[in-house]
Amino acid sequence: MMFTNRRAASLTAAAVLTALGAFACEKAGSAHEAAVQTARPDPDTIPARASIVPERCATMPANWTLAVTPERLRPKADSARPISASDTAARDTAAATGSASASTGEGIDTTTAAGRAKAKARIAAARRDSIAAAKAKADTFPTPPTALPGSVLPGCRIVAYYGNPLSKRMGILGELPVPQMLTRLEAEAHAFERADTTMPVIRALEMIVTVAQGSPGPKGLWRTRMADTLIENMAKLAESKGYLFILDVQVGKSTVAAELEPLIPYLKRPYVHLALDPEFSMKGKEPPGKKIGTMDAADVNVAITLLEKLVDENKLPPKILIVHRFTQSMLTNHEKIARDPRVQVIIDMDGFGPPHLKLDSYKAYVHKRPVQYFGIKLFYKNDKPRFTAEDVMQLSPIPQYIQYQ
């Protein structure tokens, strides 16, 4: 299975974090702060919040389907003209007549070998025409709730770096020294700006702040929380650069509600958002890493309800909630996930492997099971070859969220 190495690497890294202990986390956080300070610009140069999320980000395209459908799959220009009632009636009549003729071989003598061959050819031609028409038709996706002022989506794209600053094995966020990491993130964001010049690109740092563990821990929850010092340092780095900061949560055998409670002070900040990783949400007896975990829409809705409340009470711009997924069972009842403009939900396909496997997973868990917005994770080490920005622009639907690990 193509995801085995990912789970093993994550749990190995998590075990290392457990060994660090609380004191070591604090010490590492202090050391990380020194590195962050060298990359942090003077406060006077920090851009205003309005310049970080342009107003146009909250603009809903007039035709949502076309906005997230690659150009190669869009209908031809002449097929986009308004269709009158008479056109529709004529088309339906012709389709019905053609279908009946094709399927019954009407007008063809099927008592002879030549007639049967002609009828078979007609049926095959009708089938080819039907397939061609389906391919030419634009994919349709549910239109998200009308975006509120201050929303990041749908008018902007997000490019994020993912990981934990204490681990080089959990993602690019902790693999490189801070200055090099930021430089590389900028290069990836610029690539998407070149691939789609119509959409601004917002940068983001996604830090795993609650890490699933390979051992139960003192409370038997199979997870550890990162020290506030470490989270604060990364939050300040993101804010100083004008980036979004995303808190990624692996609940282990805890609950979404319990793990979000200590994160509320961060989520009250306008640039801080949330991600849930069902892979490490264990409902049964198995520990994280032994089996792929799962979340239900009810779990996701717990997070949505909290974020809605924070937006209202603190007069915040809408929040983003990312839900990672690479199997069907990781997220159940996706159609019951609450739809509210205060929380913009992204389903992020985060499986790795060669292009054909990633395409299959993206079709299965994003294209066929849409919620609101669309995302994909790209792996520096495990995607061979890795999608380029131009490749991502050919996916259907086109992702608004691209994460690198």
**Helix run count:** 13
Distance between the termini: 19 Å
- Return residue spans where pLDDT drops below 50 for at least 5 consecutive residues: 1-5, 7-51, 79-104
Determine the strand fraction and express it as a percent band: 15-25%
Shape: globular
Mean pLDDT: 83
Largest sheet: 8 strands, parallel, barrel
Looking across the biggest beta sheet, what order are the strands in? 1-2-4-5-7-9-10-11
Please provide the ordered H/E string of secondary-structure elements: HHHHHEHHEEHEHHEEHEEEHEHE
How many beta-strand elements? 11
Helix/strand-derived category reads alpha/beta
What integer value in Å does the Rg equal? Answer: 25 Å
* Helicity level: 40-55%
Describe this protein's structure.
- With 405 residues, this protein is an alpha/beta fold.
- It has helices at 4-39, 49-52, 64-67, 85-104, 113-136, 172-175, 178-195, 228-241, 256-260, 264-267, 297-314, 355-367, 389-392; strands at 157-163, 201-212, 223-225, 244-249, 272-276, 295-296, 319-325, 331-332, 343-349, 373-378, 401-404.
- Helix 1 (4-39) packs across helix 8 (228-241) and helix 4 runs antiparallel to helix 5.
- The chain starts with a helix and ends with a strand.
Brief digest:
By secondary structure, this protein is of the alpha/beta class. It has 13 helices and 11 strands. The strands form 2 sheets. The chain has an 8-stranded parallel barrel, surrounded by 5 helices. The chain has a two-stranded parallel sheet with strand order 6-8.
List keywords for this structure.
405 residues; alpha/beta; eight-stranded parallel β-barrel; two-stranded parallel ribbon; 15% strand; globular
